[in-house]
Amino acid sequence: MTTPIQPDTKLSVHIDPYERGWMIAAAAMLVVFAVAVTLASYSLGIQLPGPEQRVNPQTITTSGPWANPGLRQLSASKYEAYIVAHGVGWYFNPREFSVPVGSEVTFYVTSADVQHGFKLIGTNINMMIIPGQVSTLTHKFDKPGQFNWVCHEYCGLGHAAMYGTVTVTQ
Amino acid sequence: MAPEQKSNHEDEQFHPRGTVAVMILFFFTTIALWGYVYLIMLSQGPTTP
């Protein structure tokens, strides 16, 4: 039988000084990381990709902008890239395009069948491509070179063959 | 020696220098690696919807 705690008994939890020190250090690290991410997000206008619009994956290849995917020039340095990810045959359409350096490209990517990914290496473009949803992000290409994109969501046997290239010319 | 006195004596002798050194190394390594990736992400430029 346990002894009941008396009302005037002072309860305390003993924390070792070393343990307390490490808890404080770990909490401080989390605070610093959270503040750094928040400041960068607000000062640079960074936002997470969100669903731009809904589409019918069964009709995107026959109607709408993805029926004729590719690059559209909006102005001297602004472009839109409409890209379809295909899980049957495992390819992106289009697979490559070129823009001059200094161009701002908005990617509109969707899937014709299953879930895919879109990671443009060397940039922060990193989206999940879901059938029925349009994923969009904008990036300004300030340096010339080749920027490869890959599907980084496993989508079947030919997943490794799903890639493409943006060539940024002088 | 009474058990209580023995326990206090052990607390006074508890100086885990090796563990503290490893934890300090872990602390600064975590900050350095996190900061390295953070700067890479910033250098790649912002993305906006």
Write the layout of secondary structure elements.
The complex is a heterodimer of chains A (170) and B (49).
Chain A: H1 17-44, E1 51-54, E2 70-73, E3 78-86, E4 91-93, E5 96-100, E6 104-111, E7 116-120, E8 126-129, E9 133-140, E10 145-150, E11 163-169
Chain B: H1 3-12, H2 17-43
Please describe what this structure looks like.
The complex is a heterodimer of chains A (170) and B (49). By secondary structure, chain A is α+β, with helices and mostly antiparallel strands. Chain A contains one helix and eleven strands, in the order αβββββββββββ. Chain A folds into two domains: 16-46; 65-169, Cupredoxins -  blue copper proteins (Immunoglobulin-like, Sandwich), CATH 2.60.40. Chain A is elongated. Chain B has 49 residues and is mainly alpha-helical. Chain B is rod-shaped. Chain B contains two helices and no strands. Classes of the chains: A alpha+beta (170), B mainly alpha (49). The A-B interface holds A 18, 22, 25, 29, 32-33, 36-37, 40, 44-47, 49-50, 52, 122-125, 136-140, 142 and B 16, 19-20, 23, 27, 30-31, 34, 38, 41-42, 44-49.
Number of strands of chain B: 0
Question: Separation of termini of chain B?
Answer: 72 Å
Named at the architecture level, the CATH assignment of the largest domain in chain A is Sandwich
Unreliable spans of chain B are none
Distance N terminus to C terminus of chain A?
A: 84 Å
Q: Tally the structural domains of chain A.
A: 2
Rg from Cα of chain A? 25 Å
Form type of chain B = rod-shaped
Keywords:
heterodimer, A: 170 residues, alpha+beta, Immunoglobulin-like, 2 domains, six-stranded mixed β-sheet, 11 strands, elongated, B: 49 residues, mainly alpha, 2 helices, rod-shaped
